[in-house]
Amino acid sequence: QVQLQESGPGLVKPSQTLSLTCTVSGGSISSGGYYWSWIRQHPGKGLEWIGYIYYSGSTYYNPSLKSRVTISVDTSKNQFSLKLSSVTAADTAVYYCARIDGASQFDYWGQGTLVTVSS
Amino acid sequence: DIQMTQSPSSLSASVGDRVTITCQASQDISNYLNWYQQKPGKAPKLLIYDASNLETGVPSRFSGSGSGTDFTFTISSLQPEDIATYYCQQYDNLPQVTFGPGTKVDIK
Question: Is the dihedral angle over the CA atoms A79, A9, A64, B24 positive or is it negative?
Answer without folding.
Answer: positive
